[in-house]
Amino acid sequence: MRATTIHAPGDIRLSEVPDPTIEAPTDAIVRVTAGCICGSDLWPYRGENPIREGATIGHEAVGVVEAIGSEVKDFRPGDFVVIPFCHCDNTCPDCLAGVQSACPNADGTSSGQAELTRVTQADGSLVKTDGMPDDALVPSLLALTDVMATGWHAAVAAGVREGSTAVVVGDGAVGLCGVIAAQQLGAERIVAMSRHEPRQALARRFGATHVVAERGDDAVAAVMELTGGIGADAVLECVGTHQSMDTAFHVARAGSTVGFVGVPHGVELPLRRMFVRNIGLAGGIAPVRRYLPDLMERVLDGRIDPGLVFDLELPLDEVAEGYRAMDERRAIKVLLRP
Amino acid sequence: MRATTIHAPGDIRLSEVPDPTIEAPTDAIVRVTAGCICGSDLWPYRGENPIREGATIGHEAVGVVEAIGSEVKDFRPGDFVVIPFCHCDNTCPDCLAGVQSACPNADGTSSGQAELTRVTQADGSLVKTDGMPDDALVPSLLALTDVMATGWHAAVAAGVREGSTAVVVGDGAVGLCGVIAAQQLGAERIVAMSRHEPRQALARRFGATHVVAERGDDAVAAVMELTGGIGADAVLECVGTHQSMDTAFHVARAGSTVGFVGVPHGVELPLRRMFVRNIGLAGGIAPVRRYLPDLMERVLDGRIDPGLVFDLELPLDEVAEGYRAMDERRAIKVLLRP
User: Fold this and answer.
1) Which residues form the Enoyl reductase (ER) domain (chains A, B) (predicted)?
2) d(Cα A65, Cα A132) in Å, to the nearest integer?
3) Hey, how many other C-beta atoms are within 10 angstroms of the C-beta on A71?
4) Mutation test of the interface with chain B: which of A275, A279, A289, A290, choosing the one with the most B Cβ atoms within 10 A?
5) Domains of chain A from N-terminus onward
6) In which region does residue B96 sit, left (phi positive, over 0), alpha (psi from -120 to 50) or beta (all else)?
7) In the A/B pair of chains, how many CB contacts fall below 8 A?
8) Helices and strands of chain A, counted as H and E runs
9) Least CB-CB distance to B275: which of A228, A274, A284?
């Protein structure tokens, strides 16, 4: 089959690789109908994470079950499924506690930028739709595999509540989905931090009531003015750099929580400030499976439309151009059709 | 009046200093009937925090109101009061959100190792008993000014719940009070980490169901064995060193929260682990006033007896010996009578 591989920073190829096979009786093979490129795929692309030459890349996909292992009970070939980027058995103590991303019994992630992908612990990992979904819903269902669930996790971790003021740091797909999450969880004021006009517009469409285009101290000052000098009730940190984390802790009010979902790179936490002002940190890799059934309902009944984060659609053949477009911020998020 | 002053590492004196006076109409002056030495007083004593030569030291006291400013409404001379180590107006947005320790309208702490002490924002800060309390209750009431409220804050921040497994890192007075808090909040298993037999015994008396005497990797292994390899539901970090924080994050289960109340010294957080395993960090300086009315009830009706952490009582004259005893771990906590 054809799958996306990375060979060096900036070197993305569509390669011929062996088809995935059922390796454990709990596995399933899914034929990908739509995959996409994640902001976290850009870390190795930019040389900021180590690369194993020729490794497949990509971890977000939806598609149709092609084959199942002998112990898979809840899925059949032909089912349309959403694949959480981290697999899980959904029965172990960690999963039952809602931390499916830490499940010790599932193995890695699917390679979503490919024609076929293997899902471990299929019964625990997958969620299916009732029949084949309308094609117009596919982008939003695809967004649930990672970015929408991750933005949701940031909002839950930050403790967004009815009537609260939430600040979203980061205007990538995850940050924009964080705006959706804050809106759905009842935040009254949602401040999106963004300097990019198309992303500002999308943030407003998703429910942002304020946009702060400044960065650093000026951004902090803007939020402080908005909140009467008190700071935000909940802060969603959706980037993972030192600067974004620092901004997050400086706009968070005393006693609040920064929900963080951006893979941390070079971050040094302001521990003294956290201690003196009782600002907590919560979050991490999103337990996608925990939120997936609820989020799927919200997509199917039209309450949320996270698929709008895909502003470029390409055939899988052009995956390298997709990476370039995201790297150069010409696209927020790229959808790939095999 | 006589007050404790610090002049250099290890150099504690009882000195003659000017009596405190009403400086703002919201102030009160309290005649101290009992004060004590805090673990955090040992940081400057050991030269690990900067010292202003001749500065007063100590911040925990109970006593009788001696004088009030013109705007103090709720207290009269003669009232017996418990003084939270951090003052607060208890009416600002931060106080109303339960973060009285971040109140911007109160000024510092009382100097509790002295004959008299000034309390700012007296109406917001102080809590009085109904008449003069039985002398036997004074140690427990004194413990509420800091250590008991701080241990309680660790348990609340860590999210201790009915039926949960809580680990308390640290067997100082705060850690021991953390055991009390975990017990009161319904933890089913409470693991006290302690190598010191008298402290182990007190931890068990306060409700610890298990004691782990090991440190580092061995301590982690012991907790993992106790929890079937999953880790603790809630971890109370009551020390503030790098090693204690590291242990805390390694015994915490995925998705849990480390509640931290030990002033952090030289701590580097395991951010990658926090992210991958969704282990949060919450806590900081305890908002004593938030918990004080409830904790006072628990003391008065005998549900808790945190005064047992005082295992040495000295006249204020002998304050220097009190510091030595705590520094050498001959005493858990020293009560001082002016």
Assistant:
1) 7-336
2) 12
3) 12
4) A275
5) 2-146+287-337 (3.90.180.10), 148-283 (3.40.50.720)
6) alpha
7) 104
8) 12, 16
9) A284
Round the CA-based radius of gyration of chain B to a whole number and report it: 19
Is the minimum CB–CB distance between B278 and chain A shorter than 8 Å?
Answer: yes
Chain B residues in contact with A272 (beta carbon < 8 A): 264
Q: Which tens digit of pLDDT belongs to each residue from B259-270?
A: 999 989 899 999
Element containing residue B66 per DSSP (H, E)? strand B61-68
Task: Give the contacts of A202 (CB within 8 A, at least 6 positions apart).
Answer: A176, A308, A309, A332
Q: Tell which residue, A153, A171, A169, A182, has the closest CA to residue A247.
A: A169
* Residues of B whose CB is below 8 A from A93: 228, 230, 253
Pairwise CB contact (< 8 Å): B97 & A253? yes
Q: How far apart are CA B153 and CA B257, in angstroms?
A: 13
pLDDT tens, residue by residue, A6-20: 999 999 999 999 999
Q: Per residue in A45-55, pLDDT tens? A: 999 889 999 99
CB-based contact, A63 to chain B, within 8 Å: no
As a whole-number percent, the residues of chain B with pLDDT over 90 amount to 96
**CA A279/CA A179 separation, integer angstroms:** 21
And the tokens for B218?
């061995």
Residues in chain B: 338
